[in-house]
Amino acid sequence: MKNTVKIPVIAMASFLTVFTSCSDDDDSNSSEIYLSEEETPETIQTYITTHFGDNSIVQTEKETENDLVSYDVRLSDNTSLEFNSNMDVIDIDGTSKLPNSVLPEAIQEYASTNYPNNFITDWELELDHQQVELDNTIELEFDMNGDFIRIDND
């Protein structure tokens, strides 16, 4: 009876060992370091001061993957921003209304006209389109000019 219990335990331990050793976390082409507010690049600090003036930087993570650098910044109101290697903002995730100054005017106009009781909480720049999320969790896609494409149902 003792051997019956040991076999599943040994099998599970072996499985976990193999599964853990195959993890992608050991990617040698990737590194992450945390920066203080003072170490955060000045361009990013200026963007945040300009558009999110009531907030402070809580954390900045600099990620290097395959020689491409990006920065993930979390603000005091839990808004998070991602900047690419050119220091351009490519993603903003919040829980409250995003400042109008960070959104393309055409997207603001579409959202306020078609969803007058809602506001934009998230904005993301993809390769060939932009996407926003409203406070009611509806996601809208726009082309690079800010023209409406569709409601994202994914």
UniProtKB/TrEMBL annotation:
Pfam families: PepSY_like. InterPro entries: PepSY-like. It comes from the Bacteria. PROSITE patterns: PROKAR_LIPOPROTEIN (PS51257). Residues 70-149 form the Putative beta-lactamase-inhibitor-like PepSY-like domain. This is PepSY-like domain-containing protein. It comes from Zobellia barbeyronii.
